Inverse folding.
C-alpha cells in the first residue's frame, strides 16, 4: 500500500473511531431533588441559577427543584426519602434532633434570617426597641412562639397583649398606624409600598440579635453516610449558583423562577436581590472570608443557647447533631464574585 493510501486509510479509521467515541454516552448524571420551602422566588435564585446555567450538570448532577408552597410538604418528603435535600432552617433541624429524626444541615445559604418587623413611617418608631411602644403586633403563630418570646426576653416593654394573629394580609397593619407586622425583608415591604405609596420602616431581627441560619441545604444522615460525594457536589454547585445569581447574568434563572411561579414579577425579583445584598443576607459573618454556605459551631450554638434561654429547646439537647461543617467554609465559588 502506498503512503498516500495508508494516510487515507488511517484518516478513515480515526474518523470512525471518533464517531464511535461520540456515540458512546458519558457517565450518567446523578439525579438529585431539592425541595424548597415556598413558591419560587429570588430567595431561591442560586439553586435555579445552577440549573439554568449548567453548573449542576458540570458537577455531574441532574437536579430537580421541587417547589414548596402552602400545600407542599417537602420537609416530610425529605424525612420519607422522597427527595434528597430540603430548604430547612436551624430551628427545624434542632427540633428534629429532639424528636430523634436524623436531619442534618450541610450548608447555610442565608447567614441571616430575613425575618423583619414592619412599622409605619412617621409613627415615632426609629429603633427596634421602639416597637415595644406599639399597641399591636401582627405575628404568625410560629413567630409568636419563637422570636416574640426572644424579644420579650431580650428587650424591655414587649408584652403578650400586643399580639394579634397575622393572616398574611397587610390590610390590618396598613389601616392601623399604631401597629407593626411580621414579614420577610425581601417581600412584604415591597408589597406594602406598592399598595400604599409610602416606604415602611423595616427592622431585621438578625441585626438586632436574633441569629438563626436560614435557607439551608438539609439532608438526612443516611444520605451523608452513603453518598457523601453527591452531597459535596450538590453543595459546591449550589454555592457557585448563588455567586453567579448575585453577580452574573441571572436572567435565565429568573425565567425559570417565573415559570414555576407565574405570579412572580421582575420588580419583586429585583427588589429581593437588592435587599439580600444590602443587608448581607447571603454574605455576612463567616461567609465573607470562607464562602457562601458556611456553617460554624459557634454561630449554631449561639442560636441554640438563645432558644434554650426561652425554653424552646432542652438544655441537654445535642444540638451538634443538627449540622455538619465538613462540606462548607472552603471558599468554594468565591472567585466568581465580581
Amino acid at each position: 500500500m502506498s503512503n498516500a493510501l495508508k494516510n487515507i486509510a488511517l484518516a478513515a479509521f480515526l474518523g470512525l473511531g471518533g464517531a464511535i467515541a461520540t456515540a458512546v454516552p458519558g457517565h450518567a448524571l446523578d439525579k438529585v431533588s431539592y425541595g424548597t420551602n415556598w413558591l419560587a422566588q429570588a430567595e431561591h435564585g442560586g439553586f435555579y441559577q445552577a440549573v439554568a446555567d449548567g453548573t449542576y450538570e458540570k458537577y455531574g448532577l441532574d437536579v430537580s427543584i421541587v417547589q414548596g408552597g402552602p400545600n407542599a410538604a417537602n420537609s416530610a418528603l425529605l424525612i420519607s426519602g422522597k427527595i434528597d435535600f430540603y430548604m430547612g432552617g436551624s430551628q427545624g433541624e434542632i427540633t428534629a434532633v429532639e424528636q430523634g429524626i436524623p436531619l442534618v444541615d450541610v450548608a447555610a445559604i442565608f447567614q441571616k434570617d430575613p425575618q423583619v418587623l414592619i412599622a409605619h413611617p412617621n409613627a415615632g418608631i426609629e429603633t427596634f426597641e421602639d416597637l415595644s411602644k406599639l399597641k399591636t403586633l401582627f405575628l404568625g403563630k410560629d413567630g409568636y412562639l419563637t422570636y416574640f418570646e426572644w424579644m420579650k426576653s431580650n428587650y424591655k416593654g414587649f408584652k403578650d397583649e400586643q399580639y394579634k394573629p397575622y393572616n398574611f394580609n397587610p390590610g390590618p397593619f396598613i389601616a392601623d398606624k399604631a401597629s407593626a407586622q411580621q414579614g420577610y425583608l425581601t417581600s412584604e415591604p415591597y408589597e406594602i409600598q406598592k399598595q400604599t405609596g409610602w416606604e415602611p420602616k423595616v427592622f431585621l431581627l438578625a441585626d438586632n440579635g436574633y441569629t438563626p441560619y436560614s435557607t439551608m441545604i438539609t439532608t438526612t444522615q443516611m444520605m451523608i453516610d452513603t453518598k457523601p460525594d453527591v452531597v459535596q457536589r450538590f453543595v459546591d454547585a449550589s454555592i457557585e449558583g448563588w455567586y453567579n445569581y448575585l453577580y452574573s447574568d441571572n436572567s435565565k434563572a429568573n425565567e425559570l423562577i417565573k415559570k414555576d411561579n407565574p405570579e412572580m414579577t421582575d420588580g419583586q425579583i429585583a427588589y429581593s436581590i437588592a435587599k439580600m445584598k444590602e443587608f448581607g443576607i447571603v454574605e455576612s459573618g463567616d461567609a465573607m472570608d470562607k464562602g457562601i454556605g458556611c456553617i460554624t459551631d459557634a454561630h449554631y450554638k449561639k442560636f441554640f443557647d438563645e432558644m434554650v434561654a426561652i425554653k424552646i429547646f432542652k438544655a441537654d439537647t445535642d444540638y451538634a447533631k443538627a449540622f455538619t461543617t465538613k462540606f462548607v467554609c472552603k471558599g468554594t465559588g468565591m472567585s466568581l464574585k465580581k
